[in-house]
Amino acid sequence: MNIKIAKLSFCIVLSLLTVFINNAFSQRSSLSPEQLRCEYLENPNGLDELHPRLSWTLKTNDNSKFGSAQTAYQILVSGSVNSLKTNKGEIWNSDWIKSSNMQLISYAGKTLLSDKTYYWKIRIKDDKGNVSAWSENAQWSTGLFNQSEWQAKWIGTDQIFNPAIADCNIWDPWLRKNFNVEKKPERAMLFLASVGFHELYVNGKKVTDDVLSPSVTDHAKRARYVAYDIAPLLKNGDNVIAIWLGTSWSIFGPYIEKSRPNTPIVIAQANIGGQLLKTDESWITHKSPNKLLGTWDFGKMGGELYDANNYVSDWNAIKTDESGWQKAIVYKPNLVLSAQQVESNKVFEEIKPINIVARPDGTFRVDMGINFAGWTSVNISGNPGDKVEFLYSERSQDDITFALHSAYIIDKTGKGTFRNRFNYSSGRWITIKGLKTQPALSDIQGWMLRTNYKESTSFECSDPLQNWIYKTVKWTFQNLSIGGFIVDCPQRERLGYGGDAHATCETGMMNYKMGAFYTKWMEDWRDVKGTESVVGDMYDTTWFHKGSMSGRPLHKGILPHSAPTYMGGGGPPWGGIVVSLPWFIYQQEGDVRMLNKNFELIQDWLAFLKTQSKDEMLVRFGGDWDFLGDWLWPGATAEGMNNNKPQTVFLNNCYMVYNFRTAAKIARVLGKNREALDWEKQASATSVAIHAKYYNGDDHSYSDRSMSNLAAALIGEVMPEPLKPLVMKRLEKEILEIRKGHINVGITGGAMLFKVLRDAGRDDLIYSMTSQTTYPSWGYMKENGATTIWEMWEKDLPGHSLLHSSYLYPGAWYIDGLAGIKKNLDQPGMQHFVLRPPMLKEEQMTWARASMDSPAGLIKTFWKREKGILRYEITIPPNTKATLQIPLTEAGAIEGGTSGLKEAGKKDGFRVYQLSSGNYKLQFKKG
Predict the structure, then answer these.
(1) Element (H, E) at 125
(2) pLDDT at 8 over 50
């Protein structure tokens, strides 16, 4: 008996000693995990990914230490919080894995089940072998993995869109269903997909503050569902669920599909304590007071009409008079249901008017102070039945631009508030018609809307113009990002152009956390594959899928010029974004799955380009709007379209070579060496053909000797290697001498130009172009009162927008050029990056400061040039390293804390240092 007690006592002591030792290690660890993410998202709901990827960053507990690193990690996943507290990890216990990796680690536990919540946490071992404390708990919930799990039915109303009239005939419908709950559940996830926007209410309360859900999707093929946790709003006994649908994308021409009605529809279901709540023919519907103005088409995005006389105050309450309601209609569209897997839209940045002017014609002109895309709210009063109209304009001289307008009909109370719900406006000025008394400034509000991705980066410098461009580029970018894709403009088209994406995507990645956003957009590109672009009226049945550029399935690899929207003109650089964007994401995030998922798409696109080639070169193909090259360069409107010009054939061939070279790199990463070799050979053969036909030996230029084609030649690397510095020298002459420091390119040419110059470290040439204040330049926009970046370098050309994606490419340069935080192209994912001060003179810029919450952690830099001394303050996050490059002319004696710094020789005109993680204050004297 005593022996048993002794053994038991020994076991207890040993257990306590183990706990004590673990706690001691935990206390001594220099690191702790934070920012836990699943598929790039924080605690996401409704993922339909069977092997979601988990990521984290590390926080140091000792700011004086250098070289803090992760040497191993352990992940636990449990089916409950209580289980996770006991460190069981019954769903997945990775055990200790020796690795410094902390990004996009694939879940490898038990098979995930649909409609479940999983809880996880992480701990790590640091560079001393000490164990960190467990991270805070994180979670994700799953959606429905199989289409067969959907037992709900698609429902809607009998209102079908009539394209023959100027304004949509559909009143946005309400739908509702009463049900009983015997016992309020702890968890009840409702999965809701709609064609057209939706709002979800439970017992009269809106479930989330999301707006304009779901994300924009190709509704000819797919509907994305959003997962809502409705348990907190349920109660024992009677309950009601209500849905408000908005017409919007449900009537978009390119989404016409025989099995789907051109009207908003919805499907939803939830398991509530074993009871399946689902949409079906038992639901009832009623017209709401809200309807779309316009027809959701090019130049006809319109606005909203709200007739307050039709509002039913208890439409979403448990008890309401249902006598005027009708039975919902069941539809059977042939749509794939999948999870949204990107942040929803949110309301941001409240905007207050700065001035109201009463005009002689009885209207009121409101100046909101800034151009923006979003919602407005206006308190109004008048006689019952009065119609108050709101006209939106980007231009001070015009009452309305792009036919954007909304209206409100006053009810018997004589007052009300107009506020957007299922559409948005874009502009700076509002003209109000039909009001009898002037509103106060406090009666009017505005909000910018966008996808709810997180900001990651800040930047400022000693040059006020550069600060203005940076802030204005970022503001413009945000206003273009409603719905999980980047549009060209929010007022006229709302199309996800691939060509424009070249001008925006790296700006986005360097300044925001865009992993989920671009993952979703690439799924859109896979959806639209195999269909030509659309330019025309898809409701014209004599032309739809029959005429040129009518959305015909011409080749399995052909791509329209926009996704998921199909419409609009473009050329090879538009479709070619399906090669470039996955590669940029891989470089930024280290996302190999992104490359794998899109490899077939890349293969098919390149195969299509080969079918349009002759004698190793791409030839003019497609309809009138299918072969654009550079677009919106200075004077482009006066010169006309460039489809058939030799310089366009040249640029598109150079871009095709760039596609082949990039695709070969992707193939190498994936171990697909046969494809890589084929594409490398094709790139070389086309380069030889291009050079032979278009090279101008007298001045080392190409084709028409333009800035865009010099950039195209360099990005495609079509010249023999010895000629590359000579072509770059010719580009320098084009910018500094011929154009007197000004830019002379458009969207695609500009994106190529800035990519070439950023990669070459030619900050001096970019600075020259961004520092101009005369036409054409960003400074010219500022001098002319711009608050957003324009579509054209010219201000007042008819039909062109003043909030556009065209010239946003400097946004990336401010971070990897002026701030000097550069990706290490040999080590994707930012765990090893490059730091380098810009190649500028002290009189051009004296200092710059930036912080970047990169995929691997928070990077900070501050450099200052003063009286021949370069000062550098740097923060390298834990578990990362940096290569610091200092120009030899400045790399003399070094002072400051150099404990984590090692000199690594000289290369390409720089003295190179390797920096481990930590905080540095360095000072370099001229060499």
Answers:
(1) strand 117-126
(2) no
